[in-house]
Predict the structure.
Amino acid sequence: MSADAACALLHAQRAASAFDGVHDFLDRVLDQGNPPLTREEMGHQVRVLGGCMWPLISEVLQRTRGRPDWALVEQIGLAARLHAEKASLEFTPSLGFVRRLALLILNLLERVEPDLASSADARRSCPDHLDPRTTALENV
């Protein structure tokens, strides 16, 4: 194995392990069979999922070698809007905000872990209007 291949493998393993456990949070938010989130749970979800948003974006940008496709540019724009909304002094997490954040994280994870089996299940359980790949998301 070449040094470049070994470095790439190590980097991929480190990135995958850095986001372990995030899937449990995504399942809690996106699975419509779960009971509604409480205000406290929404705040916790925002802290956890928001905490991995920028590291995930950095990871995805690194994998694209700084040449994001249009979908990633839109996802980065959504991340910036969510970050700005969260930074507002009057911010109170809503279910819509938590779901938009969770779907963004899910899409970013799919770029880091392309064979993510749970992502298809999670997306099937979400209403179509919350899918970050659609422009309707910004109206939620």
Remarks:
- The two ends are 48 Å apart (CA to CA).
- The chain has six helices and no strands.
